[in-house]
Amino acid sequence: MHEYYVAKHTIYQIKKELGEIDPNLVKSVGLKIGKMSGIIPDALNMYLNLIAPEEGLTNATFDIVLAPVLFQCNDCKNVFEPSRELFWCPKCKSSNVTFISGNELEIQYIDVENSTNNNKEVERTT
Ligand SMILES: [Zn+2]
User: Fold this and answer.
1) How far apart are the CA of 39 and the centre of ligand 1, in A?
2) Domains in the chain: boundaries
3) Which pLDDT value is given to residue 1?
4) CA of 92 to the centre of ligand 1 (A)
5) What is the CATH topology of the domain spanning 2-113?
6) Mind giving me the DSSP string for 11-62?
7) What does pLDDT average to in each consecutive run of 10 residues of the chain (126 residues)?
8) What was the pLDDT predicted at 33?
9) Residue 121 C-alpha to ligand 1 middle, in angstroms?
10) What is the Å distance from ligand 1's center to 76 Cα?
11) What is the pLDDT of residue 96?
12) Half-sphere exposure of 108 (CA within 13 A, CB side)
């Protein structure tokens, strides 16, 4: 059930980002989930697809990307993805390492259909 609340929160965040934009115009949303967040992507996707239409995001699809767990070595500044049980730097074998990412839940992009006009596109070609 954890994913249900995460999905609800995510939809809330998306709507906050949209502001005045009609949620119906959202085509796709990119999400980044850290491997250490404990969120099961399939379960989250299922709940997102369940909640989104109720919240007006009737056309949205969700693109979930898993982000690796990353540590940085404080001695040689090497950034590495630790193997299952080895949490020390593979380069200099130091155990003086800092967790830098892997438990995030980020909205990477919100792709909105431009139903009015494409002025930006026109400007770009000139
Ligand atoms: Zn190191």
Assistant:
1) 29
2) 2-113
3) 58
4) 4
5) hypothetical protein PF0899 fold (3.30.2320)
6) HHHHHHHHTTS-GGGEEEEEEEEETTS---HHHHHHHHHHHHHHTT-TT-EE
7) 91 96 96 93 96 96 95 96 83 94 94 65 42
8) 96
9) 47
10) 4
11) 96
12) 14
